Amino acid sequence: MAHEKTVSFARATTAVRRSMDKPGAGSKKPAPIFIGSLSTSGAMTSPSPAAEQSILTPYSFGNLALKNRMVMAPMTRCRAVGANVPGPLAVTYYTQRASAGLIITEGSQVDPMGAGFVRTPGIYAREQVEGWTEVTQAVHDAGGKIFLQLWHVGRMSHPDLLGGEVPVAPS
After folding, report:
1. DSSP 8-state secondary structure symbol assigned to residue 153
2. Sign of CA dihedral 4, 51, 53, 64
3. How many helices (H) and strands (E) does the chain have?
4. Structure confidence by residue, pLDDT tens digits, 151-170
5. Residue 31: which residues within 8 A CB-CB, separation 6 or more?
6. How far apart are CA 20 and CA 138, in angstroms?
7. pTM higher than 0.70, yes or no?
8. Least packed by Cβ within 10 Å: which of 79, 93, 124, 133?
């Protein structure tokens, strides 16, 4: 049954791609893309108006009230400046996305030995905290909610990112 749904979804996706590849399709405005579902026969179905709107309705859990159910997943941007400080680009990037119900930031290393990529922001030094404070304030001023994703990449890191030190891992 699951295989049939996968095959049918692949057929539906292929049909959409073919319709976009027709001559003159590039000069037209692209068709809107919506979230549909697979029926029991495996055919794509259009969501009901209620389903389309449910993502835009408020949601609460614990003491956190979100204006909608959209959550922006974390994506590493590699735009930190200086000593891995979130800078003006981070302020702009996250503020532009403040209409999401909740933003989960890119990973922010909790220790200098936790860096896994070049120009990723940290949260272990005063300058980094100040940078994230600017980001957070801008998102809040735009009506958004934001969570900071904490990380330590462990053994995945590289001595080039750690001043020549060998990466630290739990084992």
Report:
1. -
2. negative
3. 4, 7
4. 999 999 999 999 999 998 87
5. 19, 20
6. 39
7. no
8. 133
